[in-house]
């Protein structure tokens, strides 16, 4: 590439001079705005950049937009409502009740034209996002995985540096502003003795037949945990669900990320004194032990450290009434523990760090969504939810399409 650039510029002294002064300019294609990820947030940003006639590009590793929704949610039913009728003609009012559409001037690009279901299929979201990008002619580079992002200090840049993005083929791009819309994609894992026996939500079977007559323990208390339970409720012997804290119901908290009524079948059977149950414990204190029949026993880490080997030797104390249910053996343990932001492509010079305590899974940003570590790096979409976590809907399409 360096060679061809030299050849190209050889005939023109003016450009040759520019090349000599700014080698990076000639070597790396430059964009004012680079967007990482063609999910809902990346496409929404692209739409506004395009309308404002800005110089931008979106990088997408998959061959189409919204690829997260090709796989998730595993049981395919979205919990964002598709309210097609409100009895009102006011478009703004109607949009408030439409949790899936992105903003655009094209009335055909409303989610109500893509699904008749109140809780739509995730495949319809993939189709919708594909149409959104195509019909609006958004500039997306598909099949382009950005493998590394670093800084190039430069006094000419408005913020003192350019962002250098390198793709899987080694092609580098230079950007003045970097907009990160990669979502949360790394399954959260909790480490404890025996955690290797836990099957993750992202890969566990979704065929109910695989769970017939089994005792199942689910770790987690969010929508993915209850979605998983709902799917196998009718075929298991029982399901126990274990999480650090009390289940929060969205109809009580008004927070859409809490447990939604559509997923609460297990609560129903619990309240009605079926065999299923909810338990509370800090997952970090747990240990799982496999007995000689391959069954899994839950115990506490400190008991495991005191004893040495067999499951019997480390059973929970018999007089511990709170833990009565955990004394049974499980056939399977499933982890549904949420997602974290993938920090791995960002060079340490960007100082993109994770938030504290409650917002560890999110990159640390200011109220303006700009990273605390690098000027000109902004986080969009669900990965920016630390700004209004548990307070508002900024982590969801019907929230972040406005922010
Ligand atoms: C992306 O890759 C897939 C297969 O790997 C291919 O079918 C598709 O045409 C590619 N798309 C683009 C825009 O290069
Ligand atoms: C994080 O992103 C990198 C680069 O795309 C990828 O190689 C890696 O597998 C991702 N990590 C996880 C845990 O998904
Ligand atoms: C566990 O093993 C260690 C050494 O292997 C031994 O010293 C200790 O007494 C054992 N503890 C129990 C409760 O058997
Ligand atoms: C981070 O960037 C610096 C300078 O650009 C480079 O020397 C270093 O290897 C990069 N680190 C990683 C992990 O790629």
TrEMBL record:
Xref: SUPFAM superfamilies: FAD/NAD(P)-binding domain
GO cellular component, one term: endoplasmic reticulum lumen
Keyword Oxidoreductase: yes
UniProt-listed GO biological process terms: ERAD pathway
Cited Pfam families: Pyr_redox_3
Quaternary structure, from the entry: Interacts with SEL1L. May interact with OS9 and DNAJC10. Interacts with TXNDC16.
Function: Probable flavoprotein which may function in endoplasmic reticulum associated degradation (ERAD). May bind non-native proteins in the endoplasmic reticulum and target them to the ubiquitination machinery for subsequent degradation.
Annotated family: Belongs to the FOXRED2 family.
PANTHER family for the chain: FAD-DEPENDENT OXIDOREDUCTASE DOMAIN-CONTAINING PROTEIN 2, FLAVIN-BINDING MONOOXYGENASE-LIKE PROTEIN (AFU_ORTHOLOGUE AFUA_4G09220)
Protein name in the entry: FAD-dependent oxidoreductase domain-containing protein 2
Organism name: Orycteropus afer afer
